[in-house]
Amino acid sequence: MSRTSILVMNGPNLSRLGKREPEIYGQRTLEEINNGLVDAFPEIRFGFFQSEHEGALLEKLFEIEDKGGWSGVLLNAGALTHYSVALRDAISAVKVPVVEVHLSNIYAREEFRRKSVISEVCTGVISGFGVESYHLGARAILGLVGKA
Ligand code: DQA
After folding, report:
1. CB 113 less than 6 A from any atom of ligand 1
2. What is the CATH number of the domain that holds 48?
3. Does 102 qualify as catalytic in the annotation?
4. How far is CA 54 from CA 8, 61, 67, 78, in A?
5. What percent of the chain shows pLDDT beyond 70?
6. Is 10 in the pocket of ligand 1 (CB under 6 A)?
7. How many domains does the chain have?
8. d(Cα 81, Cα 99) in Å, to the nearest integer?
9. Is-above-0.85 flag for pTM?
10. Averaged over 140-144, what is the pLDDT?
């Protein structure tokens, strides 16, 4: 059996983790979160992609779909979660499983964050467990590919 591979995609403002509203998003930087995944799941091959740009996230999704080789995507789309129909359509257009993750519990926050336009087209949603949301997402993908 080939090794499970997960592309961790982060959208706008997630490059600022560690500095950005630590009371909501925690103290850890994105690099620390990514390294934590590699340490916790040595059996998984990880790739990492972050962009402040909606289109770059779409292009990355299409690129990995066309090239193949990825078991799943962990996606924290940041604010795009709440309004990007373009991102929703891109997720719909690819076969690779996409698991939506959020550090904060978007359903316990401001009204405008309580709606995700991407959830319906994602395989599942994990929200509110801080850094652990990414780890739970990785476990979910292992489960999806039958390795958990
Ligand atoms: C977030 C929640 C979003 O509402 C917000 O815009 C983010 C981060 C989270 O991880 O909790 O940028 O996706």
Report:
1. yes
2. 3.40.50.9100
3. yes
4. 15, 11, 20, 10
5. 99
6. no
7. 1
8. 12
9. yes
10. 96
